[in-house]
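Reviewer comment 2.1 asked that we show a complete input and output for one of the modelled complexes. We chose the nicotinamide-adenine-dinucleotide case, as it is the one discussed in the main text.
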Amino acid sequence: MSKKVLVTGAAGFIGFHTVSKLIASTDYQIVGLDNINDYYPMTLKFERLKALGIHPDFIRYGKKTGSKLNNRFDFIRMDLADEKSLTELFQSAGFDYVIHLAAQAGVRYSIDNPNAYIQSNVVGFNHILEACRTYPVEHLAYASSSSVYGLNKEQPFSVDHKVDQPASLYAATKKSNELMAHTYSHLFKIPTTGLRFFTVYGPWGRPDMAPMLFAKAIMNGDPINVYNNGKMSRDFTYVDDIVNGVCGVVEAVPDENENGLPYRIFNIGNSSPVQLMEFIEVLGQALGKEVQMNFMPMQDGDVVSTYADISQLREVIGYEPKTDIKTGVGEFVEWYKQFYK
Ligand code: NAD
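Response of the prediction step:
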């Protein structure tokens, strides 16, 4: 029998790719949920939904809209703050798995907009946990972030490292999610897996993140802002590799750990950090354009480098990122040129 899966944040970048992969398999009956907020242009979110067969004209708040392309996918526009509707959805659907990706994302935006992060990432996540408590699921997999490593110096970042120095409120909410999941795993035996994603890029990506911001500026002949004078590196991870990890993890329901809890955290990264200047060079080449740069100081909330130790995910699900930076950027640029032509 197919598994019923809720994917929150389904109109978002990673949510869209996750749903795309799940609907390719007859093993799943999927409900996507998203409030389609305007943190970045809603048109991109509606275009993603269209690509999944959900026409924007038929979306009604709180009501399921079926996909024209796949009868195993429904979409529902809902805010995580709406606990009553969320609980009713869990009651009527009886989910087996929840892949929770909805969140207020973005490190820099969190400095001036803290409330959005508390509402979506802390209060919203608590509503998901409560719904899983009331209508038990086999597994809740949720997005955490490499940003939880904050000011940690020891690299590569390992899930065994103690992390208690977030550099932004965004990171603090993601660390809070891990702590909240721990409590619910402990008190109510809800099986949870936290996924610390490392700088995800690829087609249908986020307009607030460097690859898209840079591509737009380069295509317009504008200079790009390069922070910390370019002395930064990121463990850029191609979205298909991330989604393979997410889909593998959701099937791997955690057994009780050494403390008797069905609770687990993984890094999902590329484990191969790239210098920002190298990334810009590869992007400029793929776009076939000259790149002009404004060198700027380090931004508040940012960290200098990220680097994932992925050994634990490799051990449990055989996770192996396959996409090098040239191939991934090439795929991104091909999509970008088509989408914004
Ligand atoms: P995204 O912003 O594209 O997607 C998040 C989606 O959640 C959006 O479509 C938004 O409308 C929805 N959302 C936000 N608040 C909501 C609410 N209160 N109720 C319902 N829907 C809501 O971001 P993404 O890049 O796809 O990220 C997915 C998850 O992965 C997020 O939790 C993010 O914090 C995490 N993450 C992403 C990256 C990355 O590099 N993209 C890195 C680390 C962690």
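The first strand starts at residue 3 and ends at 8. We note this here for comparison with the apo prediction described in Section 3.2.
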